Amino acid sequence: MKKMRTFVVIISLISLTMSAQGVSKHAFGIRFGDNNGFGGELTYQRKLSEINRFELNLGYRNQNDFDAYKLSGIYQWIWNIDGGFNWYAGFGAGIGSWNDSRINSNRNDGLFINADGDVGIEYNFGIPLLISLDFRPEIGIIGNYGSNTDLDIALSLRYKF
Q: Residue 42: pLDDT above 90?
């Protein structure tokens, strides 16, 4: 009986923590990172449940004779740390294309597809602002844009609505 009571208390506390995180229904903003030049991305988050959301990012790079586009989608789980602080983890994929026409390059271009992971921490302000810092490893599946594995660390600012 004592084990059953302890189990019920633990499940109740977990349920309270999950509902207290206040994930916004929508958030739109900019993600500042650096993964093979995707220094800026437009980012959108959509709440799926109290503990899950979907994130969509669109990045563009243009540098001298090199340009690239990338679209990535990440499914995330969110856990509350304290008050407005949350941490999250997820997985997804990215697709894009690039064109390298620099004189000293092999003049490569093409399509690439990545498998993405995501781990981060965020703070929800009392105003409609969400700030986050995340780490996104990307593993190349198709195409040879960059190397086979890229590590992306980024800071994001989003407007919640």
A: yes
pLDDT for residue 17 is more than 80: no
The hierarchical CATH code for the domain 2-160 is 2.40.160.20
- Secondary structure string (H, E, C) spanning 12-66: HHHHHHHHCCCCCCEEEEEEEECCCCCCEEEEEEEECCCCEEEEEEEEEEEECCE
User: Is the predicted pLDDT of residue 47 greater than 80, yes or no?
Assistant: yes
Helix H or strand E segment including 6: helix 2-19
Phi, psi of 49 (to 5 degrees): -155, -175
Query: Quick one: tokens of 69?
Result: 């586009």
Distances (CA, A) of 84 to 17, 55, 131, 137: 12, 19, 10, 25
Q: Name the CA dihedral angle for 8, 13, 16, 19, rounded to a multiple of 10 degrees.
A: -100
Listed residue (10, 23, 135, 33) closest to 77, CA to CA: 23
In terms of Cα–Cα distance, which of 81, 73, 38, 75 is closest to 57? 73
Q: What is residue 104's DSSP assignment?
A: T
